[in-house]
């Protein structure tokens, strides 16, 4: 089970870091999406910090599973919020956030099983 937990956690961490890099570099596509969702552009860096923290926690959780579970639950909450924001803005592009939310839930389930 450790291999499955490691694969899910590392892939999710890489996705979070890629997203955070886009936010921190003010990628035009991400800025456009945030504007469309009525999210303040000057606060995008806060989302990047949350994603980086989640990625660090997921990887650290491979060495001590309670951290991984806590990080995965935090990432699930982050993406639940993302889905809600997309729905409130009548944006139909919720699939990426929904899929990452499910992957984070899988990471939360797999972490204690890998111990």
From TrEMBL:
Listed InterPro entries: DoxX (IPR032808)
Protein's organism: Rhodococcus gannanensis
Main localization (coarse): membrane
Pfam families: DoxX_2
Bilayer-crossing regions: 44-64, 69-87, 93-114
Keywords assigned by UniProt, alphabetized: Membrane, Signal, Transmembrane, Transmembrane helix
Lineage of the organism: Bacteria, Bacillati, Actinomycetota, Actinomycetes, Mycobacteriales
Localisation: Membrane
Protein name: DoxX family protein
Topology in the lipid bilayer: Multi-pass membrane protein
Signal sequence annotation: 1-20
């Amino acid at each position: 089970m450790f291999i499955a937990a490691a694969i899910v956690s590392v892939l999710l961490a890489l996705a979070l870091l890629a997203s955070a890099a886009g936010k921190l570099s003010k990628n035009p596509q991400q800025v456009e999406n945030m504007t469309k969702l009525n999210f303040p552009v000057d606060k995008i860096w806060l989302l990047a910090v949350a994603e980086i923290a989640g990625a660090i926690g997921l990887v650290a959780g491979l060495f001590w599973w309670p951290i991984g579970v806590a990080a995965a639950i935090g990432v699930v909450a982050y993406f639940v919020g993302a889905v809600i924001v997309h729905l409130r803005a009548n944006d139909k592009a919720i699939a990426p956030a929904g899929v990452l939310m499910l992957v984070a839930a899988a990471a939360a389930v797999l972490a204690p099983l890998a111990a």
